Amino acid sequence: MLKEVYGDSEKAVGKNLSSANLIWRNCLFNNKNKAKASLEAAMKEIKALSSNKPSIVSELFPLSGTFNYRVIARTGQLSPHAFGIAIDLARNNRDYWQWASKKEGEARIKSYPKEIVEAFENNNFIWGGKWSHFDVLHFEYRPEIIFKARYFSSGVKKIGWYTQALKENKEAMGYIEKIDNVLK
């Protein structure tokens, strides 16, 4: 699905990349599907928070990366970074499941500023700190996952997972159709 939305080759993805303004610096991010605009919106929220809590900035920079056309180690699967829809913030040796013990990782996740996570999640990013193979510094733009999670967490009576979703939104329904086709 990511190939269909963001580009099916490095060259195709590259055509969709543009410079995202992260307030304190710029980086390449995919401009399709509102990914770049969502990253910029998340960073604006974080900048506003940092005026009251300056320590937040140290969790952001130096950035560990955005666009990098590569596969996920030992999987052969393209990384979300390959599509220009993922960002790795400032690195800490306790941020990744292969760099830290479970105990160290759990302590890092608990201490990570929830304001950063909320700002990204408010803008349709998922956080790698919520994965069993945790990746605390990693955020990826996945509006289809956030959309589905919000739907399932609400008290709406479900018939199809997309029932009462934004049926009038052609873009949303296009993603719903793609997800349903993959799930068949």
How do the helices and strands line up, and which of them pair or pack?
Layout: H1 2-6, H2 10-16, E1 17-21, E2 26-30, H3 35-50, H4 55-60, E3 86-88, H5 102-111, H6 114-122, E4 125-127, E5 138-141, H7 143-153, H8 170-183
Antiparallel strand pairs: 1-2, 3-5, 4-5
Helix pairs in contact: 3-6
Taking the sheet with the most strands, its summary is: 3 strands, antiparallel
Q: How large is the count of helical segments?
A: 8
Structural class: alpha+beta
Q: Quick one: overall form?
A: globular
Spans of at least 5 consecutive residues with low confidence: none
SSE ordering? HHEEHHEHHEEHH
Q: Please, how many domains?
A: 2
Look at the structure and give the mean pLDDT.
Answer: 85
Calculate Rg over CA atoms. Answer: 17 Å
What would your notes on this structure say?
A hairpin with a 4-residue loop joins strand 1 (17-21) and strand 2 (26-30). The protein contains eight helices and five strands, in the order ααββααβααββαα. The protein folds into two domains: 2-141, no CATH class; 154-183, no CATH class. By secondary structure, the protein is of the alpha+beta class. The relative contact order is 0.13. Helix content is 42%, strand content 11%.
Summarize the entry for a quick read.
The protein has 184 residues and is α+β, with helices and mostly antiparallel strands.
Descriptive key words:
single chain, 184 residues, alpha+beta, 2 domains, three-stranded antiparallel sheet, two-stranded antiparallel sheet, 5 strands, globular
